[in-house]
Every structure is written in structure tokens, then in C-alpha cells.
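User: New here, any thoughts?
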Amino acid sequence: MDSPTPGRTEAPGDRAAPDTGLPPVFVSRPLPAAVLSRLEKSAAVEVWNGDGPPSASELRERTRHVVGLLATSADRVDADLLDASPDLAVVSNNAVGYDNVDVAELTRRRIPLGNTPGVLTEATADLAFALVLATTRRLVEARDAILAGQWKTWDPAFMLGMELSGSTLGVVGLGRIGRAVARRAAAFGMNVIAWSRSPQPMDGVELVELDELLARSDVVSLHVSLVSETVHLIGAEQLALMKPTAVLVNTARGAVVDQAALSDALRAGSIGGAGLDVLEQEPIAPDDPLLAFTNCIVLPHIGSATVVTRTRMADLAVDNLLAGVAGERLPACVNPEVYEPPAI
């Protein structure tokens, strides 16, 4: 039996690329069967099926001789990886966000980066509004109270929550998902105000400055992308502006919120609660202070986790990958400047 490649750790269920003469690509997490079958018709595909994403060293090993990489937000694509992958011609990120990728470095090397905008808007907006409902009506607290034997009889003061009708939702980031959340809020009779780095009017939504939004809102829902300007956009100073009854919902990126400051605010009772689908470090540590607060709901990054949406994301990610392998323009390209003639 041949010995394994030096330095390489085999993952259970690895699916190695067959020697077909087709362009080799590496897929860092499993894809829906129908999507994978479509990819395999045009590329020699190796799929990582290990427990969790590949480590940085494993990712470098697996991409050494491929022309295409289909990555996820858990994979760091940086200069070290690119130096070790001289044949890489395209990176397709199976996500709408791409803060895991050094876009400037890819662009410098004229490697296009694909992402999956648009296809996860409704699913993520649904999840965001589910967190709005769960936090304001204390659903997890109420269920836990039953399990703890605290529900003795009907009590007019038991588990009182916030009424959404007539309350104010502050949307931070009025892009596709923020607008979808605003539409859901309007259907619940909420007043909607918004702040965005690139403000665009929306019927029924009042545009305000961020500080005013934080001070006026009963619910603050975050929908900005993670860039240098939005890291810890919501920190101790911003949390202090919120009403003591207000709740914070984050389905954007974990680092948009200063997690330590949020823990402090919840501990001090200076805000009413939080609903988080994203964290600064994922997965969250079992002893993280956020998990101890009864008024804080933490989910495992499931904003796009519906069968329909995850399939659509994978389809678009494969479309981007195959276009890049073929030397064609990506359907959804983050850095279209790679297609411009190089400066002389």
C-alpha cells in the first residue's frame, strides 16, 4: 500500500479527485449531491469531508496543484495560501461575505473571487426576525422555565415581553437583507428607522444617524458587512445609548459587535437582551459569558440554513468556480477589476 503524502492527515470520508484529465479543484466542505454531480462533469473534484473545516496547513496541502478553490467563510484565503498554490486561477466563496479572504492580495495576483449575493436574503431575514420575536417575547426563557418546573399556574405578570406593534425597529445596514427585515417589521406594525454607510431611501423607512437609531429603537438589527469600518461598530459606547429594555439582534458578522462589551451590558442590565446568530469566535466556547445570560439567545450561524437557500448558494458558488476555471467572467465577482487591462 502506498504511504500517505508526507505531512498530510487523511480525513474520514475524503473524496479525492479522480485522474480524469479535467481541471483539478478543491471543495472545502461537502456540497448537495446534485450540485456536486454537476461540478464533477467539468472538473476533477476533491471534497473535504472531515469533521469541521480543513486546518490552514491542510488547506494549503490540498490546494497546491489545483486551479480552483471552492471555500467557505471558515477558510482563510491569504498570501500564505496563494504562495503555496501557484496554479490557482479562481476562488469561489460559498457565502455572501468574504472577510475570510484577502481580496487585495487576490486582486494583485489577478485572481477573481466569487461570492453568493442575493440568494440568501430571504432565509437570513427570516432568521433575523425569528430572533426578534424570540428575544422580545422571551421564548427560550419561557421554555426553560417549564423545564425548570417554574410554571405553576397562569400568572398575569409571568414572562412579560415586548409588544412589536407600535414599537421601533432600527435597521443597521439597509442592504438586501436589511430591507427584507424592514418589510417583515412593517407587516408586524413596527415603525422602522435605519442607518447605512451608503444610505438609500426606502418607502416607510426613516433614515437617521446611528446614535439616534440606537437611542430610539426598541429592537436593533444588524445587517452590515464586515470591513475595517464596521469592526466593533457596536461597542460599549453604542450599547450605552440603547434603551434598557431594547434588544440587539446580529445576523451579520460577529465582529461587528464587541462581544466583551455586550457581555458587560447584559450583566449590568443596561440593555434588555440579545439574539445572536454570529459570534466573534465561532464556534463559541462553552464557558463564554454570553451563554450564561437567560436573556441572550445564541445560535450556531444558521441564517442561511434552509435546503432551498443552501442549494442556491452552492449552485452559484459552482457557477463562479466553473467560470473561473474556464477563464470566463464570474457571474458574481467581488473584484471585477481583475478583468481590466493591467496598468502600464
